[in-house]
Amino acid sequence: MQLLQQKIREEGRVLSNEVLKVDSFLNHQIDPQLMQEIGLEFVRRFESKEITKIVTLESSGIAPSVMTALQLQVPVVFARKRKSLTLKDDVYVSEVYSFTKQEKNEIAMSKNYVTADDHVLIIDDFLANGEAAFGLIDLVNQAGAVISGIGIVIEKSFQPGGDRLRETGLQVEALARIASLENGEVSFL
Ligand code: 5GP
Predict the structure, then answer these.
(1) 112 belongs to an annotated ligand binding site
(2) For binding xanthine, which residues are annotated in this chain's numbering (predicted)?
(3) Is cis: bond before 59, omega within 30 of 0?
(4) pLDDT one digit per residue (tens) for the chain, 189 residues
């Protein structure tokens, strides 16, 4: 997606060979026009798929998910990273190793909002090793719903998550695919 690549070139900050910071439009401040375009692009890419719900991970997955959901007129459910006061029996739980925090975290999703009748599009902001995406897949599988596809805003294709996800046979769409962050520069596939 041209517009997204341009934004990453102009405003992305390469923190290391592995980490890209995009706090000015996705991870802290949010650019609503860009999010709207991202939503439209996800809708185009998953046009052939039945989608009744979008599942994402708080907090940075929410903005692109809401813009996609608005077009599709379906609800968004965001899995939570923090333990809430809800009883354990009411939630599906999965364990995810956090790329940015370098620690294991549980993610949880209420049993009330995704059911076996749903066709779910999973959306997340970044794809690195695939841990977050596989955690979300696990939650949706526990609910017995069908997974219609995986939408990723920024894939770092030099890390293994993309290959791991595509090996499942699911449709995986990444709007920007980064080949390398070496020498402080972003190169796209
Ligand atoms: P994975 O679970 O695929 O290893 O990593 C994806 C998750 O880690 C995303 O949900 C995102 O929050 C975070 N993440 C991974 N790599 C980056 C990165 O380069 N920049 C930012 N801002 N977040 C990242």
Answers:
(1) no
(2) 20, 27, 156
(3) yes
(4) 999 999 999 999 999 999 999 999 999 999 999 999 999 999 999 999 999 999 999 999 999 999 999 999 999 999 999 766 555 679 999 999 988 888 899 999 999 999 999 999 999 999 999 999 999 999 999 999 999 999 999 999 999 999 999 999 999 999 999 999 999 999 999
Is 128 annotated in a binding site? The answer is yes
pTM of the model as a whole:
0.96
**Number of domain units in the chain:** 1
Domain of 135, in residue numbers: 2-188
Identify the CATH number of the domain in which residue 107 sits. Answer: 3.40.50.2020
Instruction: For residue 82, give both structure tokens.
Output: 């923090």
How, if at all, do strands 53-57 and 76-79 pair?
A: parallel
Asked if 11 contacts 154 with a C-beta cutoff of 8 angstroms, the reply is no
